[in-house]
Amino acid sequence: MAFQLQSSSDDEMQQVSEINVTPFIDVILVLLIIFMIAAPLATVDIPVDLPASTAKRQPRPDKPIFVTMKADRSLAVGETPLPRDSLASSLAAVTSGDHSRRLFVRADKTIPYGDVMALMNDLRNAGYLKIALVALDGGGSQ
């Protein structure tokens, strides 16, 4: 609160009811800039056209491991592209050899079912049995 001293006949102090909002606006603008910079960094940069799903959403782990198959059949673990023959060794490095970790498979919807199954077979042969398929939330659009 701010007080203003005025010389009045009653010699009483009057209270000023104005609030200085300039520091508040400065803080809000700084936070806005921080979120504008941080938001694009939190998104995935690999473009994949995912199919839609109507299944109930499951809770997501803190640090999920994504195995991505793009439309040109190239693979990536997380954001790192890799050749298909080094998939097992790359996953072992990312998971620290923990085969009980859940892997999230993202595949472009234009890829044939057989190619996605071949990828899942490669993951199973590497020792990873917990595999989840990633899809977009949708109302049954096909």
Q: What does this molecule look like?
A:
The chain has 142 residues and is of the alpha/beta class. The strands form three sheets. Strands 6-5-4-7-8 form a five-stranded mixed sheet, with helices on one face. It has a two-stranded antiparallel ribbon with strand order 1-2. The chain has three helices and nine strands. The mean pLDDT is 82. The longest helix has 20 residues, at 22-41. It folds into two domains: 2-41, no CATH class; 52-137, Nucleotidyltransferase, domain 5 (2-Layer Sandwich), CATH 3.30.420.
H and E string:
EEHEEEEHEHEE
Strands in their spatial order, largest beta sheet: 6-5-4-7-8
Overall helicity: 25-40%
Tell me the major beta sheet.
5 strands, mixed
Q: Return the domain count.
A: 2
Total count of strands: 9
Number of helices: 3
In the CATH hierarchy, the third-tier topology of the largest domain is known as Nucleotidyltransferase, domain 5
Rounded average pLDDT: 82
In the CATH scheme, the class of the largest domain would be Alpha Beta
- What is the name of the CATH architecture of the largest domain? 2-Layer Sandwich
Strand content: 15-25%
Structural class: alpha/beta
Q: Mind telling me the C-alpha Rg? A: 27 Å
